[in-house]
From TrEMBL:
GO CC aspect terms: mitochondrial membrane
The keyword Signal is annotated on this UniProt entry: no
Entry protein name: HIG1 domain-containing protein
Compartment(s) where it occurs, according to its Swiss-Prot or TrEMBL record: Mitochondrion membrane
Transmembrane segments: 40-59, 79-97
GO BP terms, alphabetized: mitochondrial respirasome assembly; negative regulation of apoptotic process
Amino acid sequence: WEQTVEEILQATTMSADPDVSLSSYDEDQGSKLIRKVKEAPFVPIGMAGFAAIVAYGLYKLKSRGNTKMSVHLIHVRVAAQGFVVGAMTIGMGYSMYREYWAKPKP
């Protein structure tokens, strides 16, 4: 039992070796962001569309006419969510196309 505990402790201290480098720790945040955008390009598109729709809705808040504020905000929320769901759906389709159909067969 004592020998097993010592082996476990030795193995855990060896795994904390500072010379071991993992690729996820080697890249800075900018290159990691670029890599993630290349892997899933529709995520930032969905986020940008969401922000644009919300900004436009807030801009049009004063000129909404007779529409109640709650109805206007609900319409903005539905439009923004619809854009994000659409971007996610297109992104999944693109990802499936890349993985299953555009992949060269060995």
